[in-house]
Write a structure and sequence with these properties.
217 residues; globular; 12 strands; binds cytidine-5'-monophosphate
Length: 217
Amino acid sequence: LVSGQLAGQHWLVSAGPTREAIDPVRYVSNHSSGKMGYAIAAALRDAGAQVTLVSGPTTLDCPDGIERVAVNSALEMLAACQAVNPDGFIACAAVADFRPAMAAEHKLKKGQGDLNDVHWVENPDIVAAVAGAKRRPRWVIGFAAETENAIDNARAKRIRKGLDAILANTVGDNQAFGTDDNHLHWIDAHGDTDLGHAPKRVLAEALVRRIIDLAKE
Ligand code: C5P
């Protein structure tokens, strides 16, 4: 359906969770499976784009014809995303909001201090950094996983982060994280469109169709 329409364009997709090391054997992470981002990467490829997929740890195979850059932490993901100079960026990764300021050199032991001694600092906002960069990609698109008021919160988030569009989805109650289905709303400066409830692969195609329309504006 969308074959060839993104030929000549380079798209960057971030996907999956990040892992923030506490010590050599422990980390903080989240339940992101990476499925949505991987499906988007494949749909962009099918539309003819060159695709770089910056991925946190997942169990998924890299789709054919896509260059995958594997990362662990948010700081690694930021560096990997900033190393690419794409036409468009879709930030689908579930980046950990906080990281230990310093990972302990040795495994923390019971009886010697406790986890409250770990000092937490905020991670950089990768999509906002890319959207605000001097060499900004022409299109920057984010996701907003919300447990309530998904659309209103996503609208505000789109503007705050300087994004061309944002995809709102509701999480919690077994929705979105790890599942094969999702429900997405596309929100841009003109308004919003319900892309419906469907398998992530189908939603990824609907999203790429929106991107093709956006690229024509
Ligand atoms: O602020 P929130 O985490 O809800 O924003 C979600 C969007 O921002 C997603 O597109 C996500 O990939 C991106 N994000 C990011 N870096 C962060 C946090 C979120 O790129 N540190």
